[in-house]
């Protein structure tokens, strides 16, 4: 997500939480919102897509963008991801490569890199305490991308970075459950602790557990070989 769309998403999120836009109501038109926020329509669409994945709004073609904050979402109502990639396909891919990245990171990461990863975890937890789901999901993505980088395997890291958009989409979806927003951070903490302990097998298992549970939170299940 670009910096401008991130700021727009945070602004709209704050206005929704403050009651400026009432649940069940419509956001103003994209033209009006873009002018008010002083951003392009493209950046605004990116911001709305983020809020939709987080469960704060729901776009209905021909009708507008409705406020849905605080309502648990049915699996059938999941918004389409980038290029209409199915969530189960994204999670299955992630479950193949990210546990390996976590195991490698536990073995290869330097002390400074482990400290940087812990700082990302702290940023995510701080955002959750403020109920800033935009910032929390951004830190969530940073956590996963950082682990890929710490794996020390350039090809693995490159593949994960190239698929940043569908990965970002998949990790935002579980935040739509208002009762479970802390679950990703708690599961990240287990991955982080394993990496800090240089325990590759524990890091692999913790990452796989996190991805399986994240998928289950949106009613998505996938087979593993």
Q: Mind explaining what this structure looks like?
A:
- It contains ten helices and two strands.
- The protein has helices at 3-17, 30-37, 41-53, 87-108, 111-129, 133-150, 154-162, 164-172, 183-196, 200-217, and strands spanning 57-60, 64-67.
- The radius of gyration is 18 Å and the shape is globular.
Alpha plus pi helix count: 10
Task: Please indicate the count of domains.
Answer: 2
Report the oligomer.
single chain
Low-confidence stretches: none
Topology as a string of helices (H) and strands (E)? HHHEEHHHHHHH
Trace the largest sheet across and list its strands. 1-2
Q: What would you call the shape?
A: globular
Average pLDDT across residues?
92
Could you state the CATH homologous superfamily of the largest domain?
Answer: GntR ligand-binding domain-like
CATH class of the largest domain: Mainly Alpha
Q: Can you give the helix content as a percent range?
A: 55-70%
Q: How is the main sheet built?
A: 2 strands, antiparallel
CATH topology of the largest domain: Four Helix Bundle (Hemerythrin (Met), subunit A)
Total beta-strand segments: 2
Q: Span between N and C termini?
A: 33 Å
Q: Hey, roughly how much beta strand do the residues contain?
A: under 5%
